[in-house]
Each structure stands twice: as C-alpha cells, then as structure tokens.
Amino acid sequence: MRHVRRFVALACAFFLPAGAFADTATIKPGFVQPFAAHEMVAAANPLAAEAGLEMLKAGGSAVDAAIAVQMVLNLVEPESSGIGGGAFMLAFDPKTKTTTSFDGRELAPASATPGMFLGPDGKARSKLQVIPGGLSVGVPGVIAMLQMAHDKYGKLPWARLFQPAIKLARDGFPVGPKLARTIARWTQMGDMPDIHRTFYHADGTPLKEGDILKEPELAASLSAVAEGGAKAFYSGKIAQQIVDAVQHAPRNQGGMTLKDLADYRAKERPPVCGPYRQWRLCSMGPPSSGGIAIVQILGMLQHFPESDLQPGTLSEAHLFTQASRLAYADRAKYLADTDFVQVPVKGLLDQDYIAGRAALIDPKKDMGKAIAGDPPEKHAALSPQVSPVLHGTSHMTIVDRDGMVIAMTTSVEFVFGAEIMAGGFLLNNTLTDFSLQPEIDGKLVANAPAPGKRPLSAMSPTIAFDKDGKFLLSVGSPGGPAIIEYVAQSLVAMLDGKMTPQQAIDLPRQLNLNGPTRLEKAPANDALVPGLKAMGHDVMVQNGEGSGLHGIERVKGGYIGGADPRRDGVVIGD
Ligand code: GLU
User: Fold this and answer.
1) Contact, 486 vs 409, CB < 8 A?
2) Which structural domain, as residue segments, surrounds residue 485?
3) Average pLDDT along the chain
4) Per the residue annotation, which of 99, 100, 198, 393 is the catalytic one?
5) Residue 411 alpha carbon to ligand 1 centre in Å
6) Percent of the chain with pLDDT strictly greater than 70
C-alpha cells in the first residue's frame, strides 16, 4: 500500500503541468504541493510558509526556516502564536541521527503563588475570568528557545531570518480568512484596548479578510531582536514594555518584573521516545504531557492487530478511545514540570507497564472512566490536567535538504493569549495551564503554580522513524488537551492505515479525554455512532474540532505533506 502512495506522489511530481507547483506570489490557504524532492515546509499560513521556504532556498537549515516561519506567524496568525508566547521544538539531526528537544515553555514569575487564581471565597476563579490581563502571563520563551536552537543548528545569520516578517509588518499584509474569522467571533475582546487598537478599524468594526494590516510597532520590536538577539528581548526597552503591560493591564494586573525576564532560560531536553510496532516515535517530554501520552496510547495499541486499527472502522474508534482513556488518566495524575515535581517518566514509558495497561482494554466494551495506573517508578500524584481551552496554538513541520527535521508547536495559549500587547505583540496567558485549584483534599497538586515553574502542556510535536532509524514522518497540532488525540489519531492513520499525511489530517476527529467519546460531525463518524453506543460509549457528536495538524512524510525520492483544512495551512517545497 505504502508503495502505491509513493507512486502517486512521484507521478504527481513528474506529470503535473507546469504551474502546479507553488508560485510563492499566489499561494492560497489550503494549498498542498503534491511532492517536493529536497525540502518542505508545512505550516499554518501561506505567508509564513513562504518565509520558511525562502530561508531553505537560501541555504538555511530547518531551524532557520522555523525562525522565519514563527516571526511571520506572529503577524498573520497572532491569535495563535508569537514572540510573546512559548514553544516546543523537536529537532532530528541526520548527521548524528539523534533527536533533541528545545523547551521554550513560559514560566511563572517570582511573584507567582499556588493560590494566585483563587477568588476571595477561596475557590478557583473561572478560566475565562483570569485569562485577560497580566496575571495569566508567563515569562515568554519563544525567542530564547529559537536562539538556543539557532546557536546549535542555524546556518544563516539570525538577523536575516527576521527580514520577511519585518517587511510584512512595515508594508502591511492582507488579513487571512482565519484571522478575520477569529476577530469577528471574539468581538468581546474589542473591549481590551490593545486588541481594539490593533485588530479593529477606527470606527470600531473588526478587520475583515483582505484588509491590509500594518504593524509598525511590531516591526520595530522584530528589528530590535534581529539586531540584538535574545538579549534585546529579555532586557532593555522590550522587557520594560512587557513588564508595564503586565503590571498595568486593564484587568487582572500581574507581578512580572525585569528580573523575571532577565532570568528566563530555554532548555534543551532529551525527547520522550518509544516503539510502535516496527517504528519508533519521539515526542516532547515534560513539561509537556504530550510525548508520554502519545507513546503510551500507541504503545497500548500495538498490542492489537493492525487490521483492527484501520481508520473509519468501529474497532479502531473503540480501541483508540480506550487507550486514550488510560493515557489521560495517567496524565491527570502524574504529569507536571519535572524541574519541580518528580514525574515517573521512566515508569510511565515502561513497556511492561504499558502492556499491562493495554490488557485492561476490553475489545467489545467501553471501560468507563479509567483510573491512573501504578507505574513501577513513581513519586508524584494528583495533577489535575490543563482545563479545556480554546485554541491559540500553531504547529509547523519543516525538512531541509540535509534531511534535518523540525517539528515545532508554538502557542500564546488562548485565542489572542492574555489579550494585552507589548511592543506590538500579544502576550500569552499560559499560566492558566497550571491547575487553577492548587490543592485537593489539603494536598498541593503537582501542576500548581510556583515561581519559576512551567505549566503543564499537551503540545506534542512528534517524529516517527523507520526500522533503520531514518526519518519517516512528523506531525503536530494545536488543540489544548485534545492535541494528544489529534496527533495520535493521525499517527495511527498514517502508520497502520498507510494513509498519506493529507488523508490522515482530513479524517474526522475521534477522541476521548477520559470522558465522553467525542466524534467530529461527519458521515464517516455518524456511521460509527450506533456501534459505539452498543459498546457502552457515551457518544458526543460535535460540529468541528480545533485541530491544526501539519505534517510531512518521507517517500521515495522526496517528501509529501499535509495541512489541516480546518485552518489556513499550506505545504510548499522545492
Ligand atoms: N496551552 C495549551 C498547551 O500547552 C495549548 C493550547 C492550544 O492548543 O490552544 O497544551
């Protein structure tokens, strides 16, 4: 089957009429180049992907391209990611055949306390109440992380990578469909002055698709960081602007200081890896829960035959949701920032432990609420997971001509983050990924806020390798806690279902976060409802899901990719 897919990709490459490949001036959201022989970018917006490809064509590495993509995303998809946020980057280096990860997760300022999100009644305030303003803003990590990755893997000069974004910010760019939709849908944010000033016309109407947006203030900030590196972000004028915005926010003022910014450090960490049949998966470890959950879900599923895991079948939907329930139960109990809490990483990834968890799955009956397991090596307990959110996140996958692969998921957390801006960019609200309720039964939960701590994430940039250790495919997504499910479902579809990245990404989503079985409304999912109900599933069908999957697969002679039709993403290459 896989060779059929390769043939199709190659046939497309050789027989498509001239002009079928990306003309960078005319790429529209949703454009998926059928094949690229040397290098490829899959990202959430055409202008951002073009900036990445420009760097690759200029001899840049995948890391260089990722930096250029991120800077343009800050303009064109500001509701999802930017330099005021945080990110995780997985990097496969073909020379050493090793995968590493860079952690640019935001962290809590020194003023953070476990009870920072409690109201006067001692109860946690609602997430929507505490998001807008300064209190929810974590010390941003994107710039420090990108500089760390660039120091290790960059080929082009740092400043060069900012040029496309600076030009677009100065000259203006047409607002894309997703940004226009988002502004129109979140009109209540119009009462936050920074949002109003930037994303609304003077007469109070929201910017529409195609309106030209110019951002001179952001251009100045990007120029300063292009010239001065991370130092120009974490100290001096920009740092002061961030502190002022947080401390004097129109609501929920926060306590971030210049010292918090000066003290921020990105971290290089080993990725979390594990087997899936003949393949090997690597993904992001703590402070993300994503990698561990994905290795667990697929680790359980490999105890069932490939034929039972074909996309669209009842057996696949059932088994997938059961493995997911078990992984989410562990996630909710054990996961948090390993710099602060002893997370039983090894125990949770132990193959015998995972086999024992798989044995709990009844192939014919929903197990109901799964309870966390008892991994062989464990310390922590009680970590209520990130509460469900609306999505302010973006994922890109990039392969360069040396075969280096970057999978980067980047976020401001909620739509438009904390809804306040500094230096022309939005600030994140990532501290609300901490457990807002810091204690249960008088015990401090693992994911409670603390100074210098990183909130738990679900972001799961993932790379799969073949049995020879060669890069096979990579995928990642936004979606809050559901990210794990979006990524795991598409991995199963590509690996067991032999689907192309695009076919896997197009699939209607199926997920279970250890609650109801959630199906994205689509005929293929509707057909499964009676069968799942008969097996005892509490089925919830909903219109649309917030995935934004972008992925790339190596095929004979080059690469094919996929972009999520639920967003403005594209795949382009050379
Ligand atoms: N902040 C979330 C996390 O790190 C992601 C939010 C989203 O995808 O919208 O898990």
Assistant:
1) no
2) 2-268+394-573
3) 93
4) 393
5) 7
6) 93
